[in-house]
Amino acid sequence: MLEWLTFAAAALAAIGTVLGPVVTYRTVMATIKSDQEKSAEEQLQRDIDRYVSYALEEGPVAEMGVKQLLYLRQTGTLSDQQSNAVAEAITASLTLAQEALNRAPGATAVQSSDGDPDAVVARRPSPHQSG
Amino acid sequence: MAQEVEVTPGEVQRARLVVTLNDSLNKSTPAAIREIAAARRRPAGEASANGS
């Protein structure tokens, strides 16, 4: 009986000797992976913040920011939560234009030419012959 | 006589982004935002009536 117990103890010790480093390795790798994922998430959030700030500009910079955000959404990189936050932020930036349209029910939006300062300054709708 | 509200190209792009994101989230978009997203370009040579 004692021999069997000794054998069992030796066997367990042997298994522990083999499994110990494996368990340690897996723990370390899991920690590294977790750190990498966390770093990637932080990097993505920094990218999103940067693209939103670009999108709030005018001209080619805005175009680039918008396209980058659309790309992130289309590739599934941008989560629903992040997409919602981006949509809220961008919607808030359109308040003046929204208010101008809401003040004139039935009014249509017309895109000004690039660099037209009037479009930014003049927010009051005015009669304009259409068609 | 129809009223028009001038918006910048950047605002149009941003509105289109909002529409795309909200549609993908099955979330409603304010009518004014959709109107901005659908803004047509003013024909070349046509003067703006919004001059300040």
Would you kindly provide a written description of the structure presented here, covering whatever features stand out?
The complex is a heterodimer of chains A (131) and B (52). Chain A is rod-shaped. Chain A has five helices and two strands. Chain A has helices at residues 2-55, 59-74, 80-92, 95-103, 117-121; strands spanning 108-111, 126-128. Chain A has 131 residues and is mainly α. The termini of chain A are far apart. By secondary structure, chain B is of the alpha+beta class. In chain B, α1 crosses α2. Chain B has helices spanning 9-24, 31-37; strands at residues 2-7, 40-41.
Sequence-ordered SSE layout with sheet pairings:
The complex is a heterodimer of chains A (131) and B (52).
Chain A (H helix, E strand, L loop, with lengths): L1 H54 L3 H16 L5 H13 L2 H9 L4 E4 L5 H5 L4 E3 L3
Helix pairs in contact in A: 1-2
Chain B lengths: L1 E6 L1 H16 L6 H7 L2 E2 L11
Helix pairs in contact in B: 1-2
Shape of chain A: rod-shaped
Query: Ranges of chain A with pLDDT <50 over ≥5 residues?
Result: none
Count of helices of chain A? 5
Q: What shape does the CA trace of chain B take?
A: elongated
N-to-C terminal Cα separation of chain A, in Å?
102 Å
